[in-house]
Amino acid sequence: MGYKGGVSTRRSFLKKSILGVPAILQADVRQLVEPESLGVAILGLGRYAEGWVAPAVAQSRYTHVAGIITGSPNKVEKWQSKYSIPDGNVYSYGEMDQIAKNDAIDVVYVVTPPGTHADFTIRALEAGKHVICEKPMAVSTEECDRMIEVARRNQRMLQIGYRLYWDPWNVRVMTAMREKEFGAGWTSLDTRVSFNIKSIEPDHWMLNPSLCLGGALSEVGVYAVQAAIYSSQELPIAVRAKSWTDRPELFSAVSEHWEWELEWSRGRTSTHFASLGRDTCVELKMTLPKGELFLDNAYNYDGQTLVTPQGQESFTHIFQQKRQVEGQALAILGRHPVLTPGEMGRRDLYVLESVRQSAQSGEVVSLDQYRYY
């Protein structure tokens, strides 16, 4: 996998420096050299990009904000001033293909509504840039497949913005379940994510089915699906779902509430809920052979509380997005495993699509088309 700009310069230096060193030792020698910072262009300058993604990129040891790609010219001056972005590294959406000529940009971080992810991701990959794409990955598995194929064809890395793979509380759950620390298997599993949006503009993208797969289903339901898989360390085999709306004046094109049951091996079922019209509830609950596991505020940026069969456990709060960006940058640099590949994003969207299909048909939908664990 090739890199451009300063990264390729450092890589060439490394190659020359270790001539004559046995191949088996070269990777270890590389680990001793601090990698050069990857230039990241932020695509989409909304609230999440401004408040979390850009600060994370700026504070990471391995990245810096090198450019912006936006459809909002009024935001450009503020961003240029804050991150010292030169005029030549500012692009409109229509001009973004020109980044192919810009060696200062190594990575594009896509932070726009899901319905635009496929187009922007594919254009960035075709321009020879690595991509970090926010979740959910897209609005259909067909779009996900195209994104993955273009990344492979261009030999560029596609990763999804799943920050919880670097969050200490969620990592603790994943590790305990993977190592069967509290016994093998679970007997009950419940994940739920709800927020009460009391008002929203009628043209907001979350209410537009072409920009968002089912409103609450994808925007917060993706956490419920993710948690079910990484906490169980298994894949569900079927789903039964329903959806409904209490406020049709706001949710006329997408459903306000989603509820589903996942079927698993050995006849087990789990329960899940996603809503943009209920009081805040962000939870993961499990019953394990050695007791109960409960993670409150499970998918929030902070404020988590974890109780395991061993009792309450605490961890130091971190800037999740910064840790995520650092881990994903190290993956691009070949220093760290890829934890959240595009294939994972496609897997989760496949489950979400099936939840919607079941809710629409009123029937159980089998889950047998996974391409990634």
How would you sum up this structure in a few lines?
This protein has 2 domains: 6-163, Rossmann fold; 165-316 and 341-366, Dihydrodipicolinate Reductase, domain 2 (2-Layer Sandwich). It is 34% helix and 23% strand. The protein has helices at residues 6-17, 23-31, 47-59, 76-83, 114-126, 141-153, 168-178, 216-219, 221-232, 320-332, 342-361, and strands at 38-43, 63-70, 90-92, 107-110, 130-133, 158-160, 188-196, 238-244, 257-263, 269-275, 277-288, 291-296, 305-308, 311-313, 365-366.
Overview of the molecule:
The protein is an alpha/beta fold. The chain has 2 domains: 6-163, 3-Layer(aba) Sandwich (Rossmann fold); 165-316 and 341-366, 2-Layer Sandwich (Dihydrodipicolinate Reductase, domain 2), CATH 3.30.360.10. It contains 11 helices and 15 strands. The protein has helices at 6-17, 23-31, 47-59, 76-83, 114-126, 141-153, 168-178, 216-219, 221-232, 320-332, 342-361; strands at 38-43, 63-70, 90-92, 107-110, 130-133, 158-160, 188-196, 238-244, 257-263, 269-275, 277-288, 291-296, 305-308, 311-313, 365-366. A 9-stranded mixed β-sheet has the order 14-13-12-11-7-10-9-8-15. The protein has a 6-stranded parallel β-sheet with strand order 3-2-1-4-5-6, with helices on both faces. Helix 6 packs antiparallel against helix 11. The longest helix is centred in the C-terminal third of the chain and has 20 residues, at 342-361. It is globular and about 55 Å long. Mean pLDDT is 92; it is low at 1-21.
